[in-house]
Design a protein that fits this description.
Layout (H helix, E strand, L loop, with lengths): L17 H4 L8 E2 L5 E4 L2 E5 L12 H14 L15 H14 L3 E5 L2 H12 L5 E5 L4 H8 L5 E4 L4 H15 L6 E6 L11 H6 L7 E5 L14 H5 L7 E5 L9 E5 L1 H8 L3 H4 L6 H16 L1 H20 L12 E6 L2 H14 L2 E2 L1 E3 L8 E6 L7 H19 L16
Parallel strand pairs: 3-12, 5-6, 5-7, 7-8, 8-9
Antiparallel strand pairs: 1-2, 2-3, 4-10, 9-10, 11-14, 13-14
Length: about 425
């Protein structure tokens, strides 16, 4: 059989909707300057789908630093993998600034966040090691674990008692082997907005021997007094053995970093295949990263404005009776009961009639019959943005409850070639 033949009938859990979804629900094209309002299909929308938490994506100082670095070095420099020919003093400087900021001995830059997390997991584990991980861990963690040839146990989301049970199972397995235990979880869960119970997991080290690896993609820049992340927020930085974050959220860029004890970071430098065999992070992102870190350190008003908007949006949603779960971070999920047809009609209504652009999450990511509209507040949103959004959400919920939406998936996507 032709290996590609199966794809004609099976597009995958999300791809099965490509005819209806392409370039509208999936692969939409937002245009114009990155901001609170952008253009979608020729009309201005209030955008709640960008992880530009601190508003750095289009900050004038960041734009200037990026442009000057590109003009000076181009997009290619440095050429080659960092181990071979792609290292510079600026890469070293950015790593040291990250390390100082997050309270770790050393930091290693990563070309990409997703790729870096998966590759780090692969590098750290042998077939004798056992992994214990949160059931709602990000896809980059799951993909990393798929490469692990040893045992892995998941614990119920944010359930520390269940984590302890899985640690007990793991401890029995490694007792007479050369293996150890790695616990992996997130600082901030990007779908439901919950903080990971990092301090409580750290406390389990009093009973169990394990190392803790935390993905804090949504926590870096947003959590803690200075924005240093979930360790600072929960006063448990020393208990996090490896700390990971990406440039794609608060830093508004491409890349990532991983921090910990110097000897462990050096082990990763010499063993992470995704970094050894991939081109070094381009200079504009490195120089731009230095500017972004400068702004995070010296402009606390950026994080303060983010949280002002977070509180206004979340308080407004709760006051109007919306279910936003147990979020205690900027990630703001709005939970509704809805099937596929109603969900798509509601989203089209929001975009076309109320000019609100936000992300829709539904089956197979979450159970059938449910819908999450995920809002990401940023420092550049305004009170007017928030008020218009609250009013729009109330209006579409009423239509949903009164079953006023047509019982068919709207034909809004671009035709596929």
């Amino acid at each position: 059989m032709d290996i590609f033949a199966k794809f004609e009938k099976d597009g995958g859990p999300i791809g099965q909707y490509k005819e209806q979804a392409h370039e509208y629900f999936a692969f939409p094209k937002l245009e114009g300057e990155i901001s609170n309002r952008m253009m979608f299909r020729g009309k201005e929308k209030i955008v709640w789908s960008l992880n530009n938490y601190l508003g750095l994506a289009n900050h004038p100082e960041v734009r200037k630093a990026d442009a000057e670095a590109a003009a000076k070095w181009g997009m290619a420099y440095p050429m080659g993998a960092r181990m071979m020919s792609g290292n510079t003093k600026y890469h070293d400087q950015l790593e040291q600034e990250f390390a100082t900021f997050i309270g770790k001995e050393d930091v290693m830059l990563l070309n990409y966040g997703y790729q870096g997390m998966a590759s780090a997991i692969d590098s750290l584990l042998s077939r004798h090691d056992v992994v214990v991980y949160d059931a709602e861990s990000h896809a980059c963690i799951i993909d990393g674990l798929r490469m692990h040839m040893g045992k892995r146990f998941k614990f119920n989301h944010n359930d520390v008692d269940d984590c302890a049970k899985q640690l007990e199972r793991a401890a029995r397995l490694v007792e007479d082997t050369p293996g150890g235990i790695l616990v992996i979880t997130e600082g901030v869960f990007g779908m439901n907005g919950n903080q990971g119970r990092i301090a409580d997991i750290v406390a389990l080290k009093e009973k169990y021997e394990f190392r803790l690896f935390v993905d804090d993609a949504h926590g870096f820049g947003t959590m803690g007094k200075t924005g240093a992340g979930i360790g600072e927020e929960q006063d448990c930085t020393d208990g996090i053995d490896l700390y990971f974050s990406t440039f794609a959220k608060s830093l508004a860029g491409i890349g990532g970093f991983i921090g910990g004890k110097k000897d462990i970071v050096y082990y990763l430098r010499y063993n992470m295949r995704s970094q050894i065999f991939a081109k070094s992070l381009p200079m504009p992102m490195v120089i731009g990263g230095l500017k972004r870190m400068e702004l995070i350190r010296t402009r606390p008003e950026l994080k303060a404005k983010l949280w002002e908007n977070v509180n206004k949006l979340q308080d407004g949603l709760r006051e109007r009776g919306f279910n936003i779960g147990t979020t205690n971070t900027p990630v703001t999920p709005v939970y509704m009961e809805s099937g596929v047809t109603d969900a798509t009609q509601l989203v089209v209504d929001l975009r076309e009639n109320y000019h609100i652009f936000c992300s829709m999450v539904m089956y197979p990511v979450i159970p059938k019959g449910h819908l999450i509209l995920r809002l990401i507040p940023t420092a550049v949103h305004t009170d007017q943005d928030i008020q218009e959004t609250l009013e729009a959400f109330s209006a579409v919920r009423e239509k949903l409850e009164k079953q006023l939406y047509p019982k068919e998936i709207p034909q809004v996507s671009a035709a596929l070639a």
